[in-house]
Amino acid sequence: MNYLISEKATKDESGFTIIEVLIAMVIFSIGVLGIAQMQIQALNGNKRAYEQTEAAMWASNQAETFIQMQYDNAQLADGATGTATAGTNNKYTLNWTIADLSSTTKAIQIIVTWNGKTGTENFIFDYIKSDAI
């Protein structure tokens, strides 16, 4: 009689088959790979944002230098241009151009260039300097 109970219990046992477990593992693995890919994309996006922020900072610093200059400074003459490098290992190249808009205003354009992951990146900073007191 004991043998019959044991045989009946074996037939009624419920659980997961090896196929079900393997299918669940495949689905779980696909989800984990998707999350890993999202993390990689997030890291790349953060790096690009950091580079753009740093470029904006260097352009702003150069603009502040021009702002502090007297309006009639030779470096602010119509058609004046310049180049500088900035950042760790001179990663960023700054190029600027000065143009007279009128007798009392000058347009200053600063272009910051660097090599990013997707190729050459640019950040353009435009500023108008006035001779107003």
Short description:
By secondary structure, the protein is an alpha+beta fold.
| Beta strands, count | 4
Helices, by number, come to: 2
* Strand adjacency order, main sheet: 1-2-3-4
Please identify, by name, the CATH architecture: Single Sheet
Can you tell me the CATH class? Answer: Mainly Beta
Instruction: Please bin the fraction of helical residues.
Output: 40-55%
Question: Would you identify the regions where 5 or more consecutive residues have pLDDT less than 50?
Answer: none
Q: In one word, what is the shape?
A: rod-shaped
User: How would a crystallographer describe the biggest sheet?
Assistant: 4 strands, antiparallel
Tell me the CATH superfamily. Answer: S-adenosyl-L-methionine-dependent methyltransferases
CATH topology: N-terminal domain of TfIIb
As a percent range, the share of strand residues is 25-35%
Rounded average pLDDT: 89
Structural class: alpha+beta
Helix-strand topology string:
HHEEEE
Describe the structure.
The chain has a single domain, classed as S-adenosyl-L-methionine-dependent methyltransferases (N-terminal domain of TfIIb, Single Sheet), CATH 2.20.25.110. With 133 residues, it is of the alpha+beta class. Helix content is 47%, strand content 29%. Strand 3 and strand 4 form a beta hairpin.
Strand-helix topology:
Elements: H1 2-12, H2 18-68, E1 81-86, E2 92-100, E3 105-116, E4 119-130
Antiparallel strand pairs: 1-2, 2-3, 3-4
